[in-house]
Every structure is written in C-alpha cells, then in structure tokens.
Specification:
By secondary structure, the chain is an alpha/beta fold. The chain has six helices and eight strands.
Amino acid sequence: MYSFKLEGIEIGILPCIVVEPYAVLVAEQLFVSGCRLLLSVTSAGIIQAQEPSKKFALLTSAIRDEGTSYHYLPPERAAVLDESLARQLNLGTHPENCPWFEAKSWTTDAPYRETASATEAMKQQGVTCVEMEAAALYALSVAKHPILCFAHLTNAMAQQEGDFEKGEAFGSSETLQLVSYVLNHLQPDKIFKNG
C-alpha cells in the first residue's frame, strides 16, 4: 500500500484490486484495519457514452450480474451508492469542474459473456459501462461500510485500437485529482471521526 496525506487526510492506495471477490476481501481487511471510507476507482468498458468530456463516472448503482454481492444482500435488494454519501456529494448538482458524471454500471465476473446481445440489453437498461467490482462493493456498503465506486472510462470493450489506454502515468494524476475533489466535498466530521 502507498500511504500519504492528501487534503490533510491520510490515504492509502492499493493498485490492481480486480474482480469482486478480491475487492471485497481487501475492503473487509481495510475496514478492520481502520479504514473509514473506501474509494474504488476501476477501469471500465464504455457501453454508451454519456459525457465525453469526463473520464470518470460516479456509479450510483450497479446491475448485479456476479456472485459476491449475494453474500451481502438478498437478490431483491439493489446495489446502490449510500444515501448519506450521495447527499454529501450533492448528486445532480455538480459544477463544471466536477471530474465525474453519475452513471449506472453493469458488474459482471464473466467478461467473455459481454456479448453483443447482453451489451444491448444493458444499453436498454440505461447502463453506461461494464466493470467487475461495484455491485459487490456497494452490497458490502449497504450492509456495513461507506464505499464510493468510480469507473475510469478507459476502453470501448476491446473494440478499437489502443483500447485500455488510461492516459499519462496510467491515469494516476487524474485519479488523485478525483480523490482530492471527493475529499473536499465530503463532510469529514461524518466520516473521518477522530482524525
């Protein structure tokens, strides 16, 4: 873990946490170790473009097409962004400099089942992107801990040359700007108690 202070708050960065069982395993360990807020920033495949000027989507909900979330929530419950965090981030009323737009994702643990018909079905449900962690992390969030999930829209699902390009330094500078923006817009007394 890379650990340092940003906006006066100690943060840690763990790279390469991919697929929902591993993401939830690491999240549970982080919370037991004192983590008070988890921000997940995952690469995601664009299903339908929403705001071409923005590279990050704040995932407000995720379609549960995987297995891990069902260990935290019953099938009828949605995997959604925590209401308290949503209120603090003033969803729907963002200034121009906000680095994200709000979106719905499709979480699957079977990337080779991202078929044309499945992708079209997700378009019909208003899904912006496909990723492999958000549904499980939001299920954990509903059950236990504060978690925000962002999708870094990095590819067109391997449909064009240069797919999976995250930008300069693998997108790390833009991701740190995103984290800084989030930390400046949350109410620390409600999340970062005792420090």
